[in-house]
Amino acid sequence: MISEKTLFAQHVEKGLSDDKKFLSSMYFYDKKGEALFRQIMKLDEYYLTDCEMEILQSQGKNIAEIFDDGELEIIELGAGDGIKTKELLRNFDFNQITYRPIDISQQAIIDITDKMNEWLPALKVKGICGDYFKMIKDFKTDKRKLILFLGSNLGNMTDEQAKGFIGQLHHVMNSGDSILLGLDLIKSENIVLPAYSDNKGITAEFNLNLLHRINKELGGNFKLKDFSHLATYNEKEGIAKSYIKSSKNQSVYIEEVDKEFHFKKDELIHTEVSRKYDLDIIRNIIEGTSFQLKHQFTDHKHYFTDLILTKSN
Ligand code: AVJ
Hints:
Layout: H1 4-17, H2 31-42, H3 47-66, E1 72-77, H4 83-89, E2 97-103, H5 106-119, E3 124-125, E4 128-129, H6 132-138, E5 145-149, H7 159-172, E6 178-184, H8 189-195, H9 202-218, E7 227-234, E8 239-246, E9 250-254, E10 259-263, E11 268-275, H10 279-286, E12 291-298, E13 304-311
Parallel strand pairs: 1-2, 1-5, 2-3, 2-4, 5-6
Antiparallel strand pairs: 6-13, 7-8, 8-11, 9-10, 12-13
This protein binds N,N,N-trimethyl-histidine.
N,N,N-trimethyl-histidine (AVJ) binds at residues 40, 48, 151-153, 155-156, 196, 203, 206, 272, 274.
């Protein structure tokens, strides 16, 4: 087994050796990154969380009614802080459902279980620690499933990756099972861009935390003050991208990789895509599966959507 540290080092070496440097947003989420993301969700500029919260608060009852004919396993991919999920779950019949949050972080599972027990004492909660697909397979039962993938988390994937991911989900689901998929919708730059370049600089800190992690975990010597955060958004294609920009010509040595990397002034490291969606893009992603778009819920500003995709056969 290759250790997590080695995988991280290999990824960093590959990404920083490329002509067009890149690092994966997957590595944002250490303890500090998770705390920063929780702060991002509370920012005025970061409309995504509030919009999805509105949908689940105002239409959670309608969503629950769609599934009210018998037992249901509600599996959530990525446990999160549970606040939005609670708004949805409180509408279900607790005699019929089991809530199964899945997360790679053991602590995230413990936290969400404690919170749900406190908020909704009658709800059965069975958290699972580990990789999404392995876990779904492991409890592949005949029980009816609803898989929650909220917060536009799919948006960190390219459309190709999203197709692969949705295809894999399709593979471990039975006909009649559904996904509740939360997606950010394509809208104008003056709304999207501030969400990824907030005034307080929290998103900048979140992005630059990647360099901090490389320093801490791989023995790098990035000087964070010599790099800055850059967010872009192309309204036509509906993709926001985040970069780290080198403020000057400089070199950085990373012990664990035993290599020096050179950065030109204004050179970019691509760190994240945040895809925004419309129905054509979604249809393209589910093409080749038997998922059918059965229901669509949106907030009153039409910024965000929660879709129900149901597997037919
Ligand atoms: C958690 C992937 C939905 O892309 O909007 C927030 C992460 N990045 N600010 C997003 C994020 C910068 C977020 N997702």
